[in-house]
Batch of 3 targets.
Target 1
Amino acid sequence: MSLDKKKPADGTLNWSFPLWSNLNVLANIDENENIYIATEDGNIFFLNADGTSNKAIYIENEVLRPLIIDVDGIIYLVSGKKIIAFYPDGTEKWSHEFTEDITASPIMDETGTIYVSTRDGKIWVIGE
């Protein structure tokens, strides 16, 4: 499997990035056209706009929800009971583990506050 970027004018291949696992979430793109991909085997790929790899990291669990990106380029993902924030270069900014599995993608409002729901029916608010 691969992630392919094609030219809009004629559909010819612009670049291709090989993946050794099926995607279980959609890729997300930041304002600089950098691409972030989570695969079902727990790999997170940070790609430059030209399709070259910037960094790949591995987390313990698969990512089952789409990634979100804030206005500062911080990437947020959920995996099992954990929400993790990464800087655009792939280094971890922070993480938090809940007592129950996260049941939906995190949601961010216009102030940067993040909302997360867990299997026990609670909605958690993360922000300043």
Target 2
Amino acid sequence: MPPNGVTGEDVRNCLANILHSREFRNAPRLSRFLTYVVEQTLSGHQEQIKESTLGVAVFDREPAYDPKTDSVVRTQAVELRQKLARYYEANGSADVCRIVLPKGSYVPQFEEKQVPLPATPTTATEAIRQPVVKLLRDRLIIGGVCLLGMAAWLIWHRFQPTQQRTPSLIRITSDIGSAITPALSPSGEFVAFASDRNERGDFEIYVQPVHGTEALRLTNDPGADTMPEFSPNASTIAFRREGTRGGIYLVDTLGGRERLLAANGSSPRFSPDGRRVAFDRPGPYSPRRFLFSGKAFVIQIDGAGELPICPNFSVAANPVWSPDGKHILFLGGEKVSAGNLVPLDWWVTPVDSCNPVPTGAAEALRRKPGQTGTVPAWPEDGIAPRHWKADGVVFASSSQAWSIPLSLTNFRVDGYAKQLTFGTGAIGYPASAGAKLAFEQVQPISSIFGLPIDADTAKVTGTPQVLLEDLEQTTMPTITTDGRYMTYYRRARKSAEIHVKEFPAGPDTAIPFEKDIGWPEIVPDGRHIFFFEMPSARQVAFPEVYRVDRDGRNLTKICTDCQFQGIATNDNSQIFLRRYDKMTGRQTDFELLDLNSGKSKIVSKWTDGHRALLSLSPDEEWVSLIEAKGLMRWDRSRVRVASYRHGRLSPESEWIDITGEGIFRVPLWSPNGNILYFQSEQNGSRSIYAQHLYAKTKRPAGDPIQMVSNLGRRVLPDLGRTQRGFGVAKDKIVFPMIETRSNIWMLE
């Protein structure tokens, strides 16, 4: 427990300062370690802070793991003590308390900062009396001069701008998992949020005082409960529930029986008078198309009188009320021809009729810099407005919270965006009440896993194992056929690195690059690694492809204005690539490049279908690829196989469909060439599948088999359409997993 003079709130504020410091902001695993031991100590559970417990709770080890053979806790504790020492030598010197992790223990100590006392005066009365007496004496001596000086100061101060108070940052939650979608009560005294801290690990609604630590759980349902919203008198909370009984529900702020208000609803917002709720019903999500059938509605608090908001719009989502409750602001797009992007903007319409006015937010945010000199990006799928106040609309973009003025008379965006937060991690879902701003801060944690399999039969031979736990961005593992060498990409602070890990217990070697690089891929025999240099790093229009030996030697530029697509021969002497047209910026036909002669030839002409990632079969007679209906339609892609003879693909009419249309990535061959492994996204969930093929025809044999899916809070990331993202060896699949952790913070 904290010592005398230091409260639990003091300790949590000191912890928040540490986690936002330069030393810890890019160290999520150490931040999780420190947060866990501090919260356990403040809760009086010091006896649970043991090496074995920490390994499971913080570092995701299996319950039966042996600390004697796995030193992760001890190693990280040493690093944590070192980072704390550096923090208190610099940024933390002014903190009101110190959090110390003593050597030989994992239970933190909380030390009150020692402030030296003055030698005199010795009493509080004397401390006040002495300066007052001196001040009166001085004023008697220079009274006239003082009066003149005071008059001059008053005149000067009258014309000076008012100094703004620097807002203070308060941490609301300290969840090991995730706390998301905050809402503030109108008075700003309470915060509601969704958290997965319960025993099932699903999201439930909680409410707590903003300056308190005890949260009251309001819901208990297997469906995910998120997006809470306070009524104007703070007596009721509306929230969204997902699942078979999904919709918008109402519950008393102190808990009690729930009531369904609108089936399948989302994003509830109370009207200023508390009599109605605005919400939307999202339609099927289509990448790069947003909510084609999403519609917004207003409903009375008793469930009667449901009214659509501008039903003629293709998209009407995220409705929020005007300050006077007479209008609705929503993210919307009018009807356009099928297959084209819906141009989205913020629109304002009267509540009871459809007379929409475009606000010009999309154009303003694309063209006008913010007050900080930055521009909050307006993506193709738009920005959800979160709160409409008299001084502007609060929203999240570019991983920060913003506000932009919106006229209450002509409903046009008028002025520049003001950045409200400057934190690390992804800041989103801002909630405003008066001068207070609550928000979620998301920190993704990446790891690389290995699943033991027999790749030629697609039989799983063991449980998923953590191969790499990283503190920073780690993605795109590829592996040699024999499973000995794995490469992965790591984004360091000032550089990019290709890492080569040797199995089973060999070194992990980093190949650093000063410029940003992308999509490293080790060839099946492990001799070389191909990658390309990112255009943004070089400030040129198109990438360049390079080859480097596994040990980092013999860096060679392969081609300019091109993109690596795969190995074309088992001896690595030929590769598939696509070039870019410098005039149009579009990718051109597939080419086969001979690395010895430097000569290339076209192996597949450009058509209306867009193709990526050619993968050569082990016998060099087949090629697998991803094909989409068009450049912007990767949500309608499929896996195909083409015969490959004498450096050319067979006619497209002879290609074999391995899958139907959907979202597919990364088709890779088994060592014997009779199975294709690929990633697919169905119903919002990503998995890696194995598809058996007939040996001679390569046509699909049976249904695909799910090999890898989510692991608890860890999920497969969305792999790009032209990057490998995972690897298949004879004895394992290697793949990345992302765990998103988030907590609620508040500025006041």
Target 3
Amino acid sequence: MPSFVSRIRALCRNLFRRTAVEQDLSAELKQAFEFLVESKIRDGTSISEARRLAAIELGGVEQLKEQIREARAGYHLEVLFQDVRFGLRMLLKTPGFTVVAIATLGLGIGANTAIFSLVNGVLLRPLPFPESQRIVYFEGKNPAAGITDSNISYLDFTDWSQQTDLFASTAAYWVGTADLGADGGEPEAVPRAGVTTGFFSVLGVQPVLGRAIVPEDDKPASFNGGRGTVAIISHGLWKRRFGSDPAIVGRVVVMKSRPLTVIGVMPPGFEYPEQTQIWVNSAVNLSDEPRDNRAWSAIARLKPNVDLKQAQTRVSAINARLDKEFHETNKGWDVSLWTLHQRLVREVKPSLLALLGAVGLVLLIACANVANLLLARSAARQKEIAIRAAMGASRTRVLRQMLTESILLSAIRAPPQHLVSRCVDVDVARRRAATRADRDRLSRPDVRSRRLSADRHSLWHRPRPSGFEAQRHQCIERRRTQLRRPSPDERAQPSVDRRSRSRADAAGWRWIDDKELSPSPGGETGLQCPQCPHG
């Protein structure tokens, strides 16, 4: 212990009192030289000859000092500080090279840092739900009809839940938008979702105020009888619309002229699906629900030790039995199971990976350019390196100096790298803020009356797949092409009309005639999903 303490003291003295240590070393060497001179004089040698012989015996003073420095504590740190100081002087000596190299590295590494942060947050980091890898999403498909991604039927979902024991809990939901009014205030268009009882238990999230939807709430609502439905609101809506009122539970709000009793408030940040602000009980009447109403989405939580492949096999077997039992409505229909994380990132994953590869290539080019600059600079310093080698510097010492300068160069690039990554993050945040601002702007009545009226009376309406508004518009455009209503001149050709209707029936659509709805601005009529619950 005493030797350790003394070594620490010596290390601190050598590092932080270097001038005094060097003075003591010079004094000791001078005293040793004088001692040798005196011993030579006592042996009968003249003073001049004694000094010459003492210098020869003692050796070179600087070489001797270097040997002593190598033996004392903290020598390697001292050499590192020397290399850093010399490296900084060399970088300042060539400002053009330094600025170009730092800017090149900062651009390459900054772009990679920003994009990797995005990829990490979207693709690599799990969803903020307990054991999110066990949450699966049901996606309908009908390869015979050319449908690869569709919503599902609620009755099919009920059969999957009841005829298999692989799921710890299941839930179905639909999404839409409706006007919300409270306390006589101005109505606000908010995204809403109708969910079944197990929705929040599947996700593993519970309200911070109030309670979740229970089986007693998940029954068909009878508005004529005076009993409304219940609702759970998001934390953001609670703060913005109701001023974080702690007595919000039990209050009645109005949505589409229907009373809703608020029974809970969700935690901050929870807005699944599709930035939903209010969740209502689905209130499905199984006796009135058609099996071909494929307007629902569904999620489930797998039991422990059950993998996705097992669940897919079991559900596909159930669908095969349903195809035989309900051949008219279930012909060719099956379902694909995805983890919820895979389903949410499926659309953006190829783009993000391509972007990550592109910025990786940019970093590779930046490193190659800086390496070429360093090689050219090393060629220009051949004379300096030769002089240092002639003065006794070893090859290891020279290489260590070059390595220190390269590390300094890569460390100094941190400010421009941070600037580049910060600019990318600010741009992403600005786009998100613009998206929220557009959504808030569209919620105002003066804008909503112009923008949302077309959606409310659209003849090409189909429930959008959960989580992806853009996918809904793509689906609409695809159906417009595949299932176009014949023009008046073409109505004389029954074969064209029959083909269009047969494709519509296979896809689970219902034809809307001119007499049922007025024509759209373009003069088209179209299709509608039967008994769509979105409103």
